[in-house]
Recover the amino acids of this structure.
């Protein structure tokens, strides 16, 4: 593994995850490099989404789940008792599979994260809303209708709105859980462009079903199957010269 | 071709049966409303609505009963609304889904099916005797509140369930605490539904006789209740007296119909309020 070039932002070591008695992750060890895009690929049910949701402890809300092993972000174990999960989630943003705008105005959607963190200054709010919408390449499309309900936007715009919403709280990491599976190809291209630009500022982890997408947007790729990490390497290596036969079979479309 | 016709006939018969069932229900309802409306309308006058009964309740109005029903419903609301909504929020948002919470939920559903007279007797023991509130509007209101609680809890929980989980996860993922998430991203979208269910529960409470029978309602009072410790007159109880207990039962029959009409209009009014409130709030959100 070629990991010396950049700092490692997220490091998982022997990560196990259980839904009740069912083991969904088995000894997964992945390094996500700072300001790089790490893609997680694999067939349905392989634990991709479970994995990414452990990184901001989103699985905490599901009853009867358990984590073993370590997840270090900047060297800090995020499951340690002294870690404030609320602060963790502010630092590690998440964009979900289905666009989930809140039934509020476009403006209020973006301002939401700021307001819950106590921001009241109107000018500051307006600045951040604009900055976030620009950051998500949505500003030009919505600048004249910030008061409109976010549901009036198209699916692709809604997904970029959700990205803008997570940018507003200035996270360090953004997790994408199959962000393009519910939107059309043109909107997908826009989101991919966006991810490409985001990595200059943020560490990005993306779960995707679409191998071309992983090849296009990511620097590193992890291939998972049945809860286990099969192979993890630079994306170029995974897609041109995989070390594992299973990986090769999967990326060449022989199964999955 | 033949098969197709038969399929269509079966469908037509099915629809006919459903329409007939619907029509039957509506017919009974309208017959009922018409009967009360036509026989009660003659008694309605300004005096009837604004004055107290006179001459051994054979003349005069029913204002003390209207006022009493209004007050007791307000007390009911003060108990049932905040407590019911809070319990629902706890059950749906905070409590782990264990066997215990399932048991609690099942018990609440069962409580909503307990006959109202049982609540009335329970209220006598708890509020009138043990807590020494006496037979008073307070005891009656609290008893009705207890009876309404299972309804408000259930309705509020159902309303909370209609809020998509994506709103919750979205808020949490931005660094909201659980309470912030509930307050800003769950309650605003469930309160209309909660209010509707709650007002329907209150409307039902306003029309109940059994729970107030022994806890605070009076046969006749020459004055309006001045404090929570006073007894009161209430429409459903007044109606019960007029219809079955009065010595001059034929003489007061028109008054009984008038009382029934007022009670029905009040309950319908409350239900309409619920519908309107929900409609307004929903539209504001869109």
């Amino acid at each position: 593994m070629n990991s010396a070039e950049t700092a490692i932002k997220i490091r998982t070591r022997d990560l196990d995850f259980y839904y009740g008695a069912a083991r969904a992750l088995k000894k997964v060890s992945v390094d996500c490099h700072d300001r790089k895009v790490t893609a997680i690929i694999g067939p349905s049910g392989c634990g991709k989404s479970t994995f990414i949701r452990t990184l901001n402890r989103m699985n905490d809300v599901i009853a009867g789940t358990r984590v073993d092993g370590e997840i270090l972000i900047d060297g800090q174990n995020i499951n340690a008792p002294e870690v404030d999960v609320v602060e963790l989630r502010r630092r590690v943003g998440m964009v979900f599979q289905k666009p989930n705008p809140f039934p509020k105005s476009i403006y209020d959607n973006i301002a939401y994260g700021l307001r819950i963190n106590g921001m009241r200054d109107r000018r500051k709010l307006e600045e951040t809303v604009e900055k976030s919408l620009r950051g998500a390449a949505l500003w030009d499309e919505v600048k004249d209708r910030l008061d409109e309900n976010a549901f009036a936007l198209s699916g692709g715009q809604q997904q970029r709105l959700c990205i803008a919403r997570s940018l507003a709280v200035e996270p360090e990491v953004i997790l994408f859980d199959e962000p393009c599976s519910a939107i059309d190809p043109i909107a997908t291209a826009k989101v991919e462009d966006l991810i490409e630009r985001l990595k200059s500022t943020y560490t990005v982890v993306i779960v995707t079903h679409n191998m071309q997408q992983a090849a296009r947007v990511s620097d590193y790729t992890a291939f998972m199957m049945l809860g286990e990490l099969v192979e993890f390497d630079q994306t170029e290596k995974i897609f041109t010269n995989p070390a594992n036969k299973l990986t090769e079979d999967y990326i060449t479309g022989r199964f999955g | 071709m033949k098969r197709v016709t038969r399929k269509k006939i079966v469908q037509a018969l099915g629809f006919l049966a459903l329409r007939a069932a619907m029509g039957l229900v509506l017919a009974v309802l309208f017959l009922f409303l018409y009967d009360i409306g036509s026989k009660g309308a003659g008694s309605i006058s300004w005096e009837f609505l604004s004055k107290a009964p006179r001459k051994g309740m054979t003349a005069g109005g029913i204002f003390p009963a209207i006022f009493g029903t209004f007050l007791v419903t307000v007390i009911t609301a003060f108990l049932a609304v905040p407590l019911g909504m809070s319990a629902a929020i706890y059950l749906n948002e905070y409590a782990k889904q264990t066997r215990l919470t399932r048991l609690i939920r099942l018990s609440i559903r069962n409580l909503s099916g307990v006959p109202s007279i049982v609540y009335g007797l329970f209220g006598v023991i708890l509020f009138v005797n043990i807590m020494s509130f006496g037979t008073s509007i307070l005891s009656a209101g609290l008893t009705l509140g207890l009876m309404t609680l299972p309804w408000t809890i259930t309705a509020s929980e159902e309303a909370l369930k209609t809020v998509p989980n994506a709103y919750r996860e979205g808020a949490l993922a931005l660094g909201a605490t659980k309470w912030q998430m509930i307050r800003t991203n769950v309650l605003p979208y469930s309160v209309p539904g909660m209010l509707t269910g709650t007002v329907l529960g209150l409307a039902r409470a306003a029309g109940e006789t059994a729970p107030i029978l022994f806890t605070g309602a009076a046969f006749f009072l020459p004055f309006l209740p001045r404090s929570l410790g006073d007894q009161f007159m209430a429409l459903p109880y007044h109606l019960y007296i007029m219809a079955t207990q009065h010595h001059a039962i034929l003489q007061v029959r028109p008054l009984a119909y008038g009382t029934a009409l007022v009670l029905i209009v009040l309950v319908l009014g409350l239900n309409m309020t619920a519908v309107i409130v929900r409609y307004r709030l929903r539209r504001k959100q869109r």
Chain A touches chain B at residues 56, 58, 61, 63, 86-87, 89-91, 93-94, 96, 98, 100, 102-103, 112-113, 115-117, 149, 162, 165-166, 169 (CB under 8 Å).
